[in-house]
Amino acid sequence: MADERSSKTASSEAHKHTNRLAEEHSPYLLQHAHNPVDWYPWGEEAFAEARKRDVPIFLSIGYSTCHWCHVMEVESFEDEEVAKLLNDWFVSIKVDREERPDVDKVYMTYVQALYGGGGWPLSVFLSPDLKPLMGGTYFPPDDKHGRPGFKTEGKRSLGHTNKNALVQSGAFAIEQLSEALSATAKSTKVPEALPEKAVQKCAEQLSDSYDSKYGGFGSAPKFPRPVEIQLMLYHSKKLKENGMPGEAKEDLSMVVLTLQCMARGGIHDHVGGGFHRYSVDECWHVPHFEKMLYDQGQLANVYLDVFSITKDVTYSSVSRDILDYLRRDMIGPNGEIFSAEDADSAEFEGASRKKEGAFYIWTSQEVENILGEHAPLFKEHYYVKSSGNCDLSRMSDPHNEFKGKNVLIERNSTSEMASKFGMSTEEYLKTLGICRKKLFDVRSKRPRPHLDDKVIVSWNGLAISSFARASKILKGEPEGTDFYFPVVGTDPREYMEVAERAAAFIRKHLYNQETQKLKHSFRNGPAAAPGFLDDYAFLISGLLDLYEFGGSICWLTWAIELQNTQDELFLDKEGGGYFNTPGEDPSVLLRVKEDHDGAEPSGNSVSVINLERLASLVTSGSDQYRRNGERLLAVFEKRLKDTVMAVPLMCCAADMFSIPSRKQVVVVGPKSSPEYEGMLAAAHASYDPSRTVIHIDPTDAQEMRFWEENNDKIALMAKQFLFRQGRCSRLPGFHMQSPVYDPSFLSHCCQNDQQAKVDMLRVE
């Protein structure tokens, strides 16, 4: 089971030290429960102790799968001298950034604003009233490599000659940041031409930073930033629609090379599936080995998008690779999807220290011993060498940590390699799959990386979206397509079941049906932290995909409920836009309107798209949805003009919102018909982020009641269908006189039925 590797609250071995974190549920806090540092969790007990002793607070923020967090723990927090300094002169607080993103946001913003950069572990010294005094990221215990040591920084915060000035400076910084990050709209909507210009400008700037050799936008370290891929795909589609196929092809080619290089690189786990967090070099080879759920959900979606455009099963296979990895390793017994796997693990059972990447890397001898006669083929295909292969870039392994080790990377053409070994391409791919399975079986016996089995609502929302979309988009794969390990070859319908189980878990365990409010996360029960903007926005997006790609009407009903709650808790009704927190916790000093689309999209960007989709689905409340969306975009007008690279998804959202009428496809008929799945798959076969798909079974009383209350035009279509059938209680199957399984037909209907905005696919 995937959850067997989760952190344990109890241990068979005796510990020299135990602190308050032993009572927590967060895997990250539990990792520090036996440090000699007298840690407190974030809360009033710690704040009161700092006020009582009149000492500063040392705040340490990280997460359980963070490599440098582990390094700092070993070097500093397990060091008795450092612990004595902290215990004597500070109140020390440990925060899991995944459990409390609101707290992390405050102090990360401060460090980034004052020092020009940030990251984890985040280390900040605070006054007893939580105002920041100074901060940074990773501190070694002593000064080295030009970095100030932890002991130096701790003593500096204590020995400052004018503590009042330091406190006042921190308070002033928070005030300034609060003003800067909670902008208000100066108008009700953005200028008419701005959305299209923003998309164009962002695409141009991304093109300028494009790496034509290895793909990706920008230099090393390279992060898979799916929001950039989404922007380029969206812009490519607009260019094609505007009669510029050459320019559209250029944009698409950048995306294609990027996704190919990522899939062939070491950032992709060739043996077990899924993607690591980022590559330390420019060629996507040597990764930072942790695996994050938010990456998997977003990457599966962009690979699905490119499959929808190209119909090349290379991309559908990678999306399956990601989703099959999640199914195998990251899903709990009740359908919940866990948050991350660690970068570090022990090289062997009983090892005293863990090493980064130990679970994933191979020696040449290991490969030969495991694969036997197929070893030469496999080694050449994946660039495996006896001296180790982390030599493609000076950035790949600057400290020789992986000397003699190999991170698998594909550098040769499959067809050329097959020809070299005298095999058909199919036989060659099958052989590689068999080899990967053998390595997987051996790797499974190694000490596994730590699994953070915390369930985060927002990240589950991203994964729900990808599973739901895969259930229909993958039906476009040619019949008889072969799949090779670690891809399982699942019937796409099973992916819908995964999505629905994950959504059902959240509804049962993290949603209060009376208050209609979410909790943020779950581990051994719901965490105390409330749901934040990202939780609502990402989950609503996932639920809309769950419905549109064939799920029950109950998911759409819940999405509407959640949107109402989101508006109640986070909407700035006077200034426009959404705050990131409910604003109920006085210990959280900043309440900001987040707009940055980075490794994860911003809650505001996703919310604009949600509002547009909801306004297209239902007529009840649609005007308010549009007003809120227009006002939200007006809040970020300056960003859409001046700093588009920071908001690629918001650029797309603004352009979608500017289109007068969103395209709709309405599928009407009995869902019990075996052809129904094919009809929905046809409706979703082409790439079009500005399309809404509505499906209704006129024999389902619950669905009819929903549409009568929320969009009577859809209900009328269903009633007309029943009338045409003579109001029969037993309906026949599909009879199609138009080629509705042809995506070009659907695209043609949607583009040319501008008056009604609707292409209605009926069961006749």
From TrEMBL:
GO terms for biological process: carbohydrate metabolic process. Pfam families: Thioredox_DsbH. One of its GO terms (cellular component) is chloroplast. It comes from the Eukaryota. CDD domains: SSP411. Residues 18-152 form the Spermatogenesis-associated protein 20-like TRX domain. This is Spermatogenesis-associated protein 20. It comes from Sesamum angustifolium.
